[in-house]
Write a sequence for this structure.
């Protein structure tokens, strides 16, 4: 289907009305927001819920007998249930609130990390975000474990031919991204989970770039952990989710100690609270959790399969148009990819092009996108990345392409 047909079927124009920040001008130009990989804009319902919470319901949760505390607790726990349903987790206590993807990965690196011993191996991939590299390097240093990296090919796909040498009897954890934030590659999660299961390794999936673009079913994926950030799924910053299988989470030691995560504290010995509280020490980001629930209520009403098709059609269209320029090279040409178009232009620094696009109202990201080893693999300092959400349109891409034409002419 042509992008215009998909667009009509999906009706992005109508959806845009829900996102007030899209309707503004910057430098006197209509804002075109193609930086969704970094963070997504928020629907009015989410914005209103933040204001409502602080205007009416603000209170600390789980501890109060009073009215407001009960209102806030109920809303916070309902948000957890909304997210449970959305990702199809078997139990609501498998949904842990975190600060975001980075926080979720660090939680596992610490807690699960405690169970590792010298010589154990952790496997990641060559396309990981720094937040799915550095916590494991730190853990490997602490515990004298070994980090293994599944290589990629020139298209930006995992090389699976020698997978058996990267996922072995020694592998205790496989931590891979569902979708690459720099390339848009969709990884074969099912295949990887099966491999990891066959050697008894646990599986962590970095879902920071997948849950806003496709249907996610954690039971179907059969992963042990799935992490994502609220701000990339149209919710607030400072809140995120770590899904973990109940049995696995129950077996792990807590991450941080403090209030709420305890059952009983004495100076001799402290016992820990049940899930999810065991992993949620201290007063959480209550407003963030509640508003993230509102973001998922919003997503619930949308057809994620249609969204995926629509966003892929946008990315394909942008890619086709970009390739008409001399010297443009697309970075990341995987067979399975979505919603991200990363590219370089021969003889032009990504930052210079990004700056000129910005002056024309177009928000793209330039640089290494927190994937420096990936940039090293492609032997480039960075890319220009246009990353789409369901509220973007073909018309916006046309304006972007015109701006590209102007900018390239100015820089050449
Ligand atoms: C954004 C991102 C992260 C980090 O998310 P934070 O919200 O910064 O914690 C991790 N992995 C991927 C793939 C990302 O896109």
């Amino acid at each position: 289907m042509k992008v215009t047909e998909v667009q009509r079927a999906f009706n992005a124009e109508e959806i845009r009305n829900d996102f007030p920040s899209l309707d503004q001008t910057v430098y006197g130009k209509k804002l075109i927001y193609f930086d969704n990989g970094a963070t997504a804009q928020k629907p009015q319902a989410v914005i209103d819920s933040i204001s409502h919470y602080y205007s009416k319901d603000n209170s600390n949760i789980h501890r109060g007998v009073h009215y407001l505390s009960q209102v806030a607790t109920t809303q916070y726990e309902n948000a957890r249930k909304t997210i449970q349903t959305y990702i199809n987790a078997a139990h609501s206590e498998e949904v842990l609130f975190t600060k975001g993807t980075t926080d979720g990965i660090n939680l596992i690196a610490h807690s699960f990390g405690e169970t590792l011993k010298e010589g154990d191996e952790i496997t990641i991939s060559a396309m990981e975000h720094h937040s799915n590299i550095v916590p494991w390097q730190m853990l490997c240093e602490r515990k004298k474990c070994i980090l293994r990296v599944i290589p990629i090919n020139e298209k930006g796909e995992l090389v699976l031919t020698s997978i058996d040498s990267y996922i072995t009897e020694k592998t205790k954890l496989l931590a891979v991204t569902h979708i690459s934030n720099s390339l848009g590659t969709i990884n074969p999660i099912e295949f990887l989970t099966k491999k990891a299961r066959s050697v008894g390794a646990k599986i962590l999936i970095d879902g920071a770039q997948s849950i806003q673009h496709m249907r996610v079913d954690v039971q179907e994926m059969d992963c042990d952990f799935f992490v994502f950030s609220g701000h990339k799924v149209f919710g607030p910053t400072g809140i995120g989710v770590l899904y973990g299988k109940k049995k696995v989470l129950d077996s792990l030691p807590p991450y941080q100690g403090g209030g709420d995560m305890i059952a009983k504290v004495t100076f001799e010995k402290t016992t820990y609270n049940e899930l999810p509280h065991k992993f949620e020490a201290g007063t959480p980001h209550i407003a963030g959790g509640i508003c993230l629930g509102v973001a998922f209520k919003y997503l619930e009403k949308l057809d994620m399969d249609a969204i995926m098709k629509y966003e892929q059609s946008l990315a394909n269209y942008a890619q086709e148009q970009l390739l008409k320029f001399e010297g443009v090279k697309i970075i990341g040409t995987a067979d399975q990819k979505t919603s991200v178009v990363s590219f370089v232009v021969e003889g032009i620094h990504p930052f210079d092009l990004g700056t000129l696009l910005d002056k024309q109202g177009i928000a793209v990201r330039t640089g290494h996108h927190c994937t420096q080893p990936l940039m090293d693999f492609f032997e480039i300092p960075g890319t220009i990345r246009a990353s789409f959400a369901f509220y973007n349109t073909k018309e916006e891409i046309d304006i972007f392409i015109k701006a590209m034409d102007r900018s390239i002419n100015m820089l050449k």
Q: What stands out?
A: The pocket of pyridoxal-5'-phosphate is lined by residues 100-102, 129, 131-132, 177, 181, 206, 208-209, 229 (CB under 6 Å). The CA atoms of residues 94 and 130 lie 25 Å apart. The first strand starts at residue 25 and ends at 26.
